[in-house]
Amino acid sequence: MTADPVRVAFFKVEGALLRPPTVPPAAWFVMAHREMKARVTRLGGLVAALGLQVASPLGERKVATKLAWAGLRNMSDDRLAVLAEEYDERQIQPALRTAGSEQVLRAKQDGFVVVLVSEWLDVLVQPLAKRVGADRLVSNRMEMVDHSATGRLLDPVIGSGAATWARDLCVELGADIGKARAYGASGGDALLLSAVGEPCALHPDWRLRRIARDADWPIVER
Amino acid sequence: MTTPISVAQTLAGRELFITGTSGFLGKVLIAHLLHEVPDIGKLHLLVRPTKTRKLSVSGADRFKKIALQSPCFRPLRDRYGAGFERLISDKIIIWEGDVTEPDCGLAEAVVQRLGPVIDVVVHVAGLTDFEPDPKKALEANTLGATHVLELTSRLERAMLLHTSTCYVVGQKSGHILEQVATTTPNGKAIDPEVELAAFEALAKGEAGVDQRDPAVKIERAKAATAHARSRGFPNTYTYSKALAELLLTKKAPLNGTRRPVPLTIVRPAIIECAETFPFEGWNEGINTTGPLLWLIKSWFRHLPSKGDVRFDVVPVDTCSRAMIGIIAAMLAGKAQPVYQVGTSSTNPFTVGRAIELSNLAVRKDLGATNKKPLERWGQRFFDTVAVGADEDHTFAPNRLRRLARDLKSLVGSAAGAIPALRKGKDSADIFLDDMDKSLGRVQRMLDLYRPFIHDNNWSFDNRNVRALDALMDDDSRARFGWAGDRIDWRKYWIDVLYPGLATWSMPLLENREVPIDAVPAWASPAGLAVCGVAQLPPTPRELPSIDPVKTMLADDAPAATLDLVPESLGATL
Fold first, then answer.
1. Given A34, A36, A81, which is nearest B359 (Cβ)?
2. Residue numbers in A near B368 (CB within 8 A)
3. What is the CATH number of the domain that holds A44?
4. Is CATH 1.10.10.10 what the domain over B7-279+310-347+461-485+516-553 is classified as, yes or no?
5. pLDDT by residue (tens digit) across B39-59?
6. What ipTM goes with this model?
């Protein structure tokens, strides 16, 4: 008797599961850097990252992501952990979308392996993943040396772009990406949604809405 | 194959004599023994009565208050309820006395009574001021230890567990082994008797000078600190404790007119808030970390310290667990001569990390307060950072003091030239004088801490206390095994230590009361009488008719009490 094939459901945290936060997480960290000079100077880097994100083609999201998190250079792992806890309490928990968490629950009930996908740091998203009962988390990871952030993200960097990591994960889990689901919310998620068999635009921004309409993907909004 | 030690079975029916029962560690040790070793025989507690011009409180009454109202005994009161008083009367015997006196101030009949029954004397009493009156340090820490040794030698079979400190090593960085030094930290030969005579002369002070004069006392304290530093110790406290170790080590095995005493020395590192027993965060008095966190919590910005220096903190219950395990090992004949109860060698924690976690703890605390948003934002914005101790930083207290004095002078000149300003001059003078005094106290505090957070970097070997785990059975290891390596410093510092200090220690720095528990509803007057000095059971030997209360009062008990709040530290803040 053959086992049921593994089916994977990808959920993009930013947008699909969470409403946009009041304060972007990288800014939250930078403004709480121990060194006062760093707080001021690295906010400039964040502004540049934001500009790059807004103005650039999809493929440049990775650069913007790397730039945003570079501001955490020299931050201790203790500070990262405590600020992440704070951010989870004040920004993430109040921003959880009901529709998003319902979709996660439905996917679990349907027997899917639930994978949360995020451009944020793992330390930020892990509590959320645990809370919603996700099976796996794919997110960015900060390189740490002697318990101090270098400001560089470890590979693979999760931004937009080719969802190579999604294909690799499906292979690892023994799943067929053609039968996987994916829930995204921004234009940058289009490539991931294109790679799976059951894409869904969940609270899409204008870019993804246009793409979803053109591709005839379901659009869920509530 | 060696039989593993069962701590509970080894201690069952045994009788311990304990000093320092009103101190932070002493109380936790007593409560921990009663809680975890219910079959222990008896705990004989040496308690000093309080006698001042305004107040007289017997040792028994002092302990009654502790037992009924100290939060340290909460787990026992909660467990036993109305049966708590019965527990105390069954297990506790109070003996009034004082370690600064020969035979701890106990009458001969009491010593004879204790002789056949005491298994281990646990000496915890001591003065923990960094810069005390040398007379007090000598009497409490050095001579106190020798008095306890002499008493122990008069008991038929008792062993002695002496509580010292890791910092007897002095100003000598590096990996510190568990052995008693044979030289001073700066490498000079040391004869403990000669050293004792020098310390006694220092404590006595100059002939013909009124030693009670406050200015003379300050000078004497400074002279003692200089004396300690000349030998390589950071302060009088560590010097007096090191001298005690040397004297005990020399005298304990001697077979003069007294019985040689099996001696074990336990050296805790910096004892701080409890991890779990009696409850998370419990602390008492002003210990080492409280003033540092209090400073970090204020607007203070530059802490003269070195980030990579190891800061060896051990929770008080980790220490009491270890001591109970050591006592069992002593009774089983398997104890080592010295145990260092610290974390720096196997679970190191640094000053830099302590500062970082303190900043984060303050941030978390401020987030939960009702302070105005601007004030919260302002305090959260200014994290404390480590700076070199010898550099004149922007916010260095001495620099700010110079600024305050310059401002005062400027205000004085301006008021002289412009009559309209004279009105505000007095207020400005008061404000600036207060600022000068506060900064002076801060600078003094930083000077006292400098050896521990800047000048020296110690790693205290703790293999002996870890090796106890292998000697114990599984149950004993779970309850009394070494817990220092499992401490998650982030969780401990932010969720246990900081809130604990905020509740139990920082109020003292702000001249506020700390909470004590209400007398339990089940404590009746008749019950209180039980919770006190037990009547001596009859012994085979005929004793002359004695009034036990009068007998147990020490002759010439000193009028002043040992302060729980370190005088020298308290005076600086």
1. A34
2. none
3. 3.40.50.1000
4. no
5. 999 999 999 998 888 888 888
6. 0.88
